[in-house]
């Protein structure tokens, strides 16, 4: 049996180290989307859920038999430090029956002299409400581009899942805060926050 030379051992160690570095790099790239998926599925960190019209219809039927339970919904708006937009909810609070679809509106205005594309991150408080707060339509699903001085009105269609009534962690919760923060889209690509992270100015 041939013995391995020092040079062969060094080559094998170098190849092993290179392979480990590639594996770690791959795990780094996968970590962000996997964490994002985990948050969306579990509601971790107050991450809201995305629902279809059929999901909403089922929730409405279940909510109708829940005895008229309602939640106060508070709408919060923030912009990152490098975002020259004026961003705010049209209505600060609303009351919604559990399982019932409701629509809220936010407005955004570009106060700069150049077109700016923004993307909105979001979460809800208290955190345990994230898995029950469902959005059917939302301006946060896509990037928004505003021309200089342009102002737009943006809707979010949502409901609170009646399953919240079976969660002991939701006992005593009377108000849910839906919070958004707009960031410049190019800043997010360069390593800014991902969905569910907030960075209010």
Structure characterization notes:
By secondary structure, this protein is an alpha+beta fold. It is built from three helices and ten strands. Residues 27-46 and 188-201 have low confidence and may be disordered.
What are the SSEs and their pairings?
Layout: H1 6-42, E1 49-50, H2 53-64, E2 70-79, E3 85-89, E4 93-97, E5 102-110, E6 116-125, E7 133-138, E8 144-146, E9 151-160, E10 175-184, H3 185-189
Parallel strand pairs: 1-7, 2-10
Antiparallel strand pairs: 2-4, 3-5, 5-9, 6-8, 6-10, 7-9
Explain briefly what this protein structure is.
By secondary structure, the chain is an alpha+beta fold.
What percent of the residues sit in helical stretches (DSSP H or I)? Answer: 25-40%
Shape: flat
**Uncertain ranges:** 27-46, 188-201
How many helices in DSSP terms?
3
Order of helices and strands: HEHEEEEEEEEEH
Alpha-carbon distance between the two ends: 68 Å
């Amino acid at each position: 049996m041939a013995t391995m030379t020092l040079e062969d051992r060094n080559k094998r160690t170098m190849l092993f180290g290179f392979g480990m570095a590639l594996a770690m790099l791959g795990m780094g790239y996968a970590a962000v989307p996997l964490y994002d998926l985990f948050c969306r599925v579990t509601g971790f960190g107050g991450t809201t859920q995305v629902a279809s019209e059929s999901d909403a219809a089922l929730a409405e039927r279940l909510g109708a038999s829940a005895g008229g339970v309602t939640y106060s919904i508070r709408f919060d708006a923030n912009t990152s430090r490098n975002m020259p937009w004026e961003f705010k909810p049209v209505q600060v609070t609303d009351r919604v029956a559990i399982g019932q679809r409701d629509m809220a509106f936010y407005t955004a205005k570009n106060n700069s002299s150049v077109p700016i594309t923004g993307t909105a991150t979001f979460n809800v408080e208290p955190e345990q409400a994230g898995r029950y707060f469902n959005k059917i339509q939302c301006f946060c699903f896509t990037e928004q581009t505003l021309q200089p001085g342009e102002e737009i009105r943006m809707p979010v269609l949502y409901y609170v899942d009646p399953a919240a009534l079976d969660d002991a962690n939701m006992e005593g919760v009377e108000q849910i805060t839906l919070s958004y923060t707009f960031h410049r889209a190019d800043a997010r690509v360069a390593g800014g926050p991902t969905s569910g992270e907030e960075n209010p100015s």
